[in-house]
Request: fold
Amino acid sequence: MKFHIENSKINGAINLLSQLSLKGTNSRHRSKMIKALSTHLKEVGDDEKEILKQHCRLDEHGEPKKTADGRAWDVKDLKTFVKDRDELYAEKLILEGGKAWGYLRTVKDILLECEMEWSGADAEIYDYLCDEFERIEEEGLQEETKEESEEKSA
Reply:
């Protein structure tokens, strides 16, 4: 089982999973997934800071400066900055195998059977996560069918 999630969706996924009222194994597995997502989100934040340092004017301490009004970063080349930042946000975290397999299976079942009502950004991330888990299920079924036909032809 390989679970893919875009960097730009991780924070929303953490927030959505945190809203679920769960007990026992379901709660523990949800917490493990949140921990894995949170760890990666910190790395994304560090990468984003590096992108800012590469594309912004820096202060005397080597940190990115804000514009005079303090509302935005003082970016030297906005087009290149946006391209690099968007590439970072589009990159995907892949969770698979080992310890991840157990909590991914549990969270998949929780979300696909969830009867909570979602709206706005939560509804969008819920749909995104369900689509990813359904993709994983579909790939698993295709893999099983392929293995069965190979066994019959052997």
